[in-house]
C-alpha cells in the first residue's frame, strides 16, 4: 500500500492527540499480566507491536476484558487480570511480530518460568541481535537457544530455570536489555543490578514502582537494582501519548510556515524529552505545559509548536542519543530543512533497529536531493537546500515511512511512500492525521 504527501493547502493549525506510548504499553501489558489482581489500563497503544505483547500475555494466562476498542483495530481500554507471577506454559509459540521490545522484555520473564517456550517474529525481527539479552539471562542461569538462520537471532527457544541475581554492566545503552534483566530479577532471590553506560528510558522502573515494587536507582541514574522475588500488585494506569509519535508533528509544524499546532497529553518523561531540547536548540518555537499531576508516575503535558522561521543545524551529543534514538529519522528530516550542518554521531545502534536506519534514512534523503554523508555511527547533514518529492520505499520500517511522509509536506512536488502497512506497528490512525494535515 502507498501513501502520498505534498505541501498542505494550509499550515498545521489546531490540536492533535497522538496514540498512547509504545514503550509504556508493552510494559503495562507485561506487568499487568504478571501482577496479582486486576488492572484497568487506559489509552493503551493498540498498534501491532503492543497487541502482540498483549496476546502473548493472554497465552501465558492473563485475562483481558475489553472496555473500548479503537476503530476495529484493538483494545485501548481494558481490564487485565494477572497471573500473580506464575505464568502458564503457552500452548503455542509466541509471535512477537516486528517488535524487538516485546521479544527482549518477554525473554527476561520467560527465562525464569518453569517451562520451555518459543518466541518468533517477522523477517526484520529475525535479523536483530538477541545475544545482548541471551548473555545476561544465561549468566542468571537460563538456557536460551537462538535458532534463527542468522547467528544470535530469533526464533528463540527459552528453557526457563530458577534464576540467580547478577550484577551486569550493559555493553550498549539499551532500555530493552536493562528491562529484560530487571524483569528476570523480579523472579530471582536477591539483588540484581544493571549498570548502564548512559541513562536510558526508565519506564520499567517507574511502572515497577507503580505496581508496588521499588527499584533503587543510583544518584547519577546509571545503576538500577531490584531485589526479588517480588509480586507486582495490580494498579490502574493511564498511558500518556507517545512523544516519539508526537515528534513527527513537532517537526512538521517547525518546517511548515504559519503552523501553530498543539499536541495534547504527550508523555514528558525526562528520559525521552531530548527531542524537545534538540528541536529548541535548532530554533523551533515550543511551549511545553506540563500537567501538575503525573500519569501514574509518568509526567505528561501539552506541547505547542509554532513555526518561527527556518531551523538551524546542531550537534547531537553522545549522551543524548539513547534519549532520542527513535526520533533520529525525523530529526534528520528537520536537519535537512535547517540552515547549516547537523551532526548525528555515536548512534551505531540505529543500524540494528527495525531497519538499518542510518542506511535507510540516508538513502531516502539523498533521493530527495538532500546533502547527507553517511558514517558507520551516524550521519552529517548539510541542510537548507529545497527537497524534491519522489517515490520512496519505507523498507518496512514504520518510522522511516512516517518521517518521509512528513518530509513530503515541506518538499516540492509530491512524495509517495511504498509499503506503508508497517505504520500500524506503532501509529494506528497516522494516515487520518496526515489527511487532516493535508486538509483533504
Ligand atoms: C525501547 C527502547 C529502545 C527503542 C525502542 C523501544 C523500549 O531500544 O529504540 O523503540 O521500549 O525499551 P533500545 O533500548 O534497544 O535502544
Explain what you see.
This protein is an alpha+beta fold. The protein has 13 helices and 22 strands. It has a 4-stranded mixed β-sheet with strand order 2-15-17-16. The mean pLDDT is 97. Residues 23, 101, 174-176, 179, 200-201, 325-326, 349 line the site of shikimate-3-phosphate (S3P). The site of shikimate-3-phosphate (S3P) has 11 residues, from helix 5.
Layout: helices, strands, pairs:
Layout: E1 2-6, E2 13-16, H1 22-34, E3 38-42, H2 48-59, E4 63-70, E5 74-81, E6 94-95, H3 100-110, E7 116-120, H4 131-139, E8 143-146, E9 156-159, E10 167-169, H5 175-185, E11 190-195, H6 203-210, E12 216-217, E13 223-228, E14 237-238, H7 243-255, E15 260-267, H8 274-281, E16 285-290, E17 300-306, H9 321-324, H10 328-337, E18 340-344, H11 357-367, E19 371-375, E20 378-383, E21 391-393, H12 398-409, E22 414-418, H13 430-438
Parallel strand pairs: 2-15, 3-14, 6-7, 10-11, 21-22
Antiparallel strand pairs: 1-22, 3-5, 4-5, 7-9, 8-9, 11-13, 12-13, 15-17, 16-17, 18-20, 19-20
Helix pairs in contact: 1-2, 1-3, 1-6, 2-3, 3-5, 4-5, 7-10, 7-12, 10-11, 10-12
Bound molecules: shikimate-3-phosphate.
Residues 23, 101, 174-176, 179, 200-201, 325-326, 349 line the site of shikimate-3-phosphate.
Amino acid at each position: 500500500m502507498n501513501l502520498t504527501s505534498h505541501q498542505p493547502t494550509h499550515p498545521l493549525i489546531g490540536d492533535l492527540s497522538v496514540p498512547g506510548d509504545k514503550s509504556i504499553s508493552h510494559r503495562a501489558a507485561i506487568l499487568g499480566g504478571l501482577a496479582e489482581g486486576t488492572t484497568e489500563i487506559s489509552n493503551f497503544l493498540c498498534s501491532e507491536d503492543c497487541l502482540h505483547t498483549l496476546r502473548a500475555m493472554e497465552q501465558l494466562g492473563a485475562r483481558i476484558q475489553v472496555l473500548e476498542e479503537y476503530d476495529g483495530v484493538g483494545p485501548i481500554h481494558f481490564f487485565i487480570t494477572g497471573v500473580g507471577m506464575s505464568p502458564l506454559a503457552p500452548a503455542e509459540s509466541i509471535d512477537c511480530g516486528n517488535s524487538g521490545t516485546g521479544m527482549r522484555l518477554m525473554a527476561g520473564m520467560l527465562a525464569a518460568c518453569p517451562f520451555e517456550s518459543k518466541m518468533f517474529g517477522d523477517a526484520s525481527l529475525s535479523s536483530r541481535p538477541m545475544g545482548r539479552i541471551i548473555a545476561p539471562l544465561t549468566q542468571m542461569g537460563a538456557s536460551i537457544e537462538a535458532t534463527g538462520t542468522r547467528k544470535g537471532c530469533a526464533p528463540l527457544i527459552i528453557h526457563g530455570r530458577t534464576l540467580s541475581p547478577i550484577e551486569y554492566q550493559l555493553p550498549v545503552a539499551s532500555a530493552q536489555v536493562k528491562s529484560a534483566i530487571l524483569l528476570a530479577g523480579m523472579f530471582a532471590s536477591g539483588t540484581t543490578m544493571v549498570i548502564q553506560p548512559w541513562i536510558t528510558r526508565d519506564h520499567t522502573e517507574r511502572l515497577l514502582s507503580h505496581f508496588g515494587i521499588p527499584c533503587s536507582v543510583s544518584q547519577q541514574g546509571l545503576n538500577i537494582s531490584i531485589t526479588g522475588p517480588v509480586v507486582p500488585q495490580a494498579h490502574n494506569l493511564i498511558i500518556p501519548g507517545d512523544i516519539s509519535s508526537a515528534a513527527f508533528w513537532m517537526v512538521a509544524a517547525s518546517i511548515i510556515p504559519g503552523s501553530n499546532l498543539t499536541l495534547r497529553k504527550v508523555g514528558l518523561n525526562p528520559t525521552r524529552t531530548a527531542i524537545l531540547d534538540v528541536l529548541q536548540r535548532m530554533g523551533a518555537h515550543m511551549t511545553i505545559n506540563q500537567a501538575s499531576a503525573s500519569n501514574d508516575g509518568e509526567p505528561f503535558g501539552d506541547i505547542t509548536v509554532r513555526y518561527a522561521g527556518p531551523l538551524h543545524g546542531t550537534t547531537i551529543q553522545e549522551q543524548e542519543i539513547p534519549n532520542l534514538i527513535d526520533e533520529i529519522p525525523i530529526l534528520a528530516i528537520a536537519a535537512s530543512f535547517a540552515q547549516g550542518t547537523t551532526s548525528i554521531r555515536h548512534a551505531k545502534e540505529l543500524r540494528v533497529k527495525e531497519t538499518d536506519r542510518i542506511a535507510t534514512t540516508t538513502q531516502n534523503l539523498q533521493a530527495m536531493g538532500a546533502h547527507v554523508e553517511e558514517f558507520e555511527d551516524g550521519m552529517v547533514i548539510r541542510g537548507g537546500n529545497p527537497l524534491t518529492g519522489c517515490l520512496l520505499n519505507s523498507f518496512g520500517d514504520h518510522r522511516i515511512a512516517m518521517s518521509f511522509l512528513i518530509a513530503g509536506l515541506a518538499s516540492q512536488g509530491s512524495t509517495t511512500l511504498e509499503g506503508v502497512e508497517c505504520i500500524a506497528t506503532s501509529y494506528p490512525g497516522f494516515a487520518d492525521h496526515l489527511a487532516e494535515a493535508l486538509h483533504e
